[in-house]
Amino acid sequence: MERRQFFRLGFEKAVKTAVEWADSAVESRAGRCFRPPYAQREMAFLLTCSRCDRCIQACPHHVLFALPLEMGPQLAATPALDLLNHGCHLCSDWPCVRACEPGALRRPVGATPEAVIPLPQLATARIDPNRCLPYRGPECGACGSVCPVPGALRWDGPRPAIVSGLCVGCGLCREACVTTPKAVELQTLRKESHDQEPSHT
């Protein structure tokens, strides 16, 4: 191998390693919040999002809010879902996505007009049996009619269970839950547990 080629390959490897490290660091910070539907991967999202607030204003259910400065300069003013307090209704016309002119939120295009576009994965959800009332005796059913994804919330008698392969983490079952603290726990897609999220009030 020629010396010039050796140094070129070494430089390319160093650049690739640096990019991968930066991407990993950004993804790790993103584990502290829930991103809007159809958000790009975090690095691309941060580079594309103009912090214009249009998606926040477009949300008819007031689920989106701008992250505070306390989250750090990279994340500050970018949109996040307040899933710990309000569920995403998975609007059929996706107003938040349509309002995003830069394309930080981008709904996939089907291969054909008839193609079914998958719902966005927003978070992961699980039911804590130590908090859920039916697991402790009393009947409840508060979350029974709110799940917008067919089959994602199944029932074993009076006890609800979340089907991980179908659930998209919209948080509507958590919003409906009547226990304190909530029996439905949410995690970001980066697998960090969340009992509280930055307040937008």
Question: What can you see in these coordinates?
Answer:
With 201 residues, this protein is α+β, with helices and mostly antiparallel strands. It folds into two domains: 34-119, 2-Layer Sandwich (Alpha-Beta Plaits); 121-191, Alpha-Beta Plaits (2-Layer Sandwich), CATH 3.30.70. Helix content is 25%, strand content 12%. It is built from five helices and seven strands, in the order H-H-H-E-E-H-E-E-E-H-E-E. It has helices at 3-30, 42-48, 54-58, 95-99, 172-176, and strands at residues 64-66, 79-81, 124-127, 153-156, 159-162, 184-187, 193-194.
Keywords for this structure?
Alpha-Beta Plaits; two-stranded antiparallel ribbon; 5 helices; globular; 2 domains; three-stranded antiparallel sheet
Give the N-to-C terminal Cα separation: 61 Å
What is the C-level CATH assignment of the largest domain? Alpha Beta
What about the largest sheet?
A: 3 strands, antiparallel
Strand content: 5-15%
Number of spatially distinct domains: 2
Q: Give, in spatial order, the strands making up the sheet with the most strands.
A: 3-6-7
Remind me, CATH topology of the largest domain? Alpha-Beta Plaits
Order of helices and strands: HHHEEHEEEHEE
Record field, number of beta strands: 7
Residue stretches low in confidence (pLDDT < 50, at least 5 long) are 14-23, 192-201
Count of runs of 4 or more consecutive helical residues? 5
